[in-house]
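# step 3/5: fold
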Amino acid sequence: MTLAPYDALRRIAYLLERSRAGTYRVQAFRGAAATVLATDPAELESRASAGTLTDLPGIGSATEAVIRETLEGDVPEYLKSLEDKAAGPLVEGGLDVRATLRGDLHSHSDWSDGGSSIQEMVVSAMELGHDYLVLTDHSPRLKIANGLSTERLSTQLGVIDDINSAVGDFRLLKGIEVDILDDGSLDQSAEMFSRLDLRVASVHSKLAMSAEPMTRRMIAAVKNPHTNVLGHCTGRLVEGSRGTRAQSSFDAAAVFQACAAHGVAVEINARPERCDPPDELVAMALDAGCLFSIDSDAHAPGQLDFQIYGCARAERLDVPLERIVNTWEMERLLAWANPG
C-alpha cells in the first residue's frame, strides 16, 4: 500500500477518532494534514531530506515521522499499529442492521461543535458507503456549542449546495439539531425550517426539570410539524470524559405515543457515552408503534463509525428494519420528513 503523507495523516486521525482518543492527539494529526495539503510536495521532499519538516506549522515529532516514512514509500509504523487495533469490530453484532442503513441523520461539523469541516465529514461518509448524510449543527441558543444563527445557517445551506454539485450520487442533506426550549417550542424560525430537509429536536438544557413539565415540553416539540426525529431523548451520559449524568424524568409512554401519532422517529443515539434511550425505553417505543433512526451523532469523521453501536442495540432489541427510517431510500426519507 502506497500512501501520500496527507492520506496517512488523515487516516490516523480517523482511526484515533474512531477509538475515542483524546481531542489533542486527533487535532495534532488533522492539523498536520492541513499543513501538508497546503505545502508543495517538492518542499516536503526537500525538508524531509534536510530534516526541517518540524519547522512547518503544526508538524511535531510524531507527525514528522509519519510524513518521512510515507515519503520513503513505507506505511508508517504508527498507522500500522492503529490499523491492527482497528481490525476487530467496535462491538459484537449489528452488522446485518448496519448493512441496511443508507445514511446517518445526525452529524456535526466545525460550524458548531464538531471537530472537522463539512467537506471532511462528507468524504468520510462517502467512504463508509452512505447514500446520504444529514448535517445537523446546533441551533442559536446553544451557545456553548457555537449554535448557528439564522444568518449562519443560511450561509451553510449555500455551502451544502456547492458540495452537492461536486459529489455525484451522494447527497448531503440540510438539517439541524434544534434545541427544545423550556416551553416545548423549537429554537429556529418556521421559515428556516422550511428550507431544511430534516430536523432533529433535542433537549439540551434544564435536563433535571421535573417530570410533568418535561413531559409537556417534549410532547409539544413532538407535535411541532417541523420535528422529524426526537434526539437522545433522556439526555443521559453513562460513561466518558464528561462523566455520567442521570436520565431526565418524563412520562415516556405519553411521549412515545405522541411520537407514534405524529410520525416522529425516536433516535437510537449510538454514541457509546449516551446509549440513549436505555433498553427499557426502546422496548416501550417499540410497543407504542414508533419509528426509529439509528444515528452516530458524530462530531468528527471517525465517529461516523459509532453507528454500529446503535445497530447492535437495535439488533439485540429486535427493532424491525422497516421501522428504521434511515434504511429507507432518500426519496422516501425526504417525503416522510416533508409531507406538506
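# step 4/5: annotate
The chain has two domains: 5-85, 95-337.
# step 5/5: archive (pending)
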